[in-house]
Amino acid sequence: MPLRVVVAGATGVVGRTLLPLLRKRGHHVTALVRRADGVDEAAEADDVAVADLLDPSGLRRALRRASPDVVIDQTSGFGGRDRDEGLRRTAELRERGAKNLVAAAVSVGARRIIGQSMAAAYRPHGEEVLDEDSPLWTDAPGCWGAVVRGLAAMEEALLTCPDIEGVALRYGALYGPGTHYAPGGAIHTRVRGSGLPLVSDGVGLTSFTHVDDAAGAVLEMLTAGEPGAYNVVDNEPAESAEWLPAYARMVGGPAPVSLTMDQARAQLDWLTVHQLTEQRGATNFRLRETIGWRPTWPSWREGFAAMLNLWPG
């Protein structure tokens, strides 16, 4: 049955992929953008509304006009090159913006809201691959701790509100067109410039998610699945010692240099060291078993190759 859907963050990497999929299914789509200059970027939508998630009254007006059945939040602060600013903006959007969006959605009678969370936010624990019952690392240091606390606040707002069905989709490291891993993106540039090293004895795991799979999961969760949190990741969590050299070869960059742990701590920022040495991967078992979801790209290997136009055919 066709639904009326509002997509916040419609011009982001997942939103751009999601809009045409929603319309292909026959849904009426309103793109919610923060600035008027984003209207042209949302050409795939049926309607465009301008509102800031940090402006509760403006947000309620926009949703009242759209009258959605489902509200989707794909907003992010990571669009620019300044990572610390992106972390700060994302923390604010998740903590304050998500609460405003839930309240606005409830006020206009929406039945379901789907929010964007992160599988990377789990508290590191041994060498395990983590599921949705694992705790988020809310007391992590610095800016990353602020982001995780924002995610936790967002998920609490989504999952504890009795007046709407809340779903939190915890993506892995997003890759695909327009992401940091695509040609010209921050990771692509850093690896080609030999700026992302390996760390000796580091066992950091990364779970990856292609933007197509993120959008596909949102599409299915419009009507399927119980409210709750779900990891949306591929089938192959990868150690940094595995994916980073493979990605460097694919992009034509030099082999990553190797640092000791002491060298890494002296030369790299805390978050990069955490990601390379102790971050844990996530399992997609709950989503697979709940709605039968399967990633289009089960492994980052084939997904990277496709993104970089190395895939046969």
TrEMBL record:
Annotated ranges, domain NAD-dependent epimerase/dehydratase: 5-232
Protein name stated in the entry: NAD(P)-dependent oxidoreductase
Pfam families: Epimerase (PF01370)
A GO term from the CC aspect: cytoplasm
Cross-referenced InterPro entries: Epimerase_deHydtase (IPR001509), NAD(P)-bd_dom_sf (IPR036291), NAD(P)-dependent_oxidoreduct (IPR051783)
GO MF annotations in UniProt: aldehyde dehydrogenase (NAD+) activity
